[in-house]
Predict the structure.
Amino acid sequence: MQLIKFILAILFLIIGFTFALINHTPVLLDFYVTQVTLPLSVVILLAIGSGLLLGSVLSLFFFLRIKHENRRLKRQHDAIRKEVTNLRTLPVKS
């Protein structure tokens, strides 16, 4: 398994290196107050990285909300189960 991970890491490094060599054209980024010139490969990687980061943060909020809902439903289920158990143990009145 370690060998496969190592081979995949080397493969991604080679692909990344060739990607950077192919896309070395400088690109001007204008941030209203300043301008930055970066290689196209860096701009693409920054865009992908920021998208991954934003997606991870939004997913985190979604999963935290689902986890909270799950906890609430488990408490409600436990309360209903206790109530049913108590009702089953009550004597039947005629």
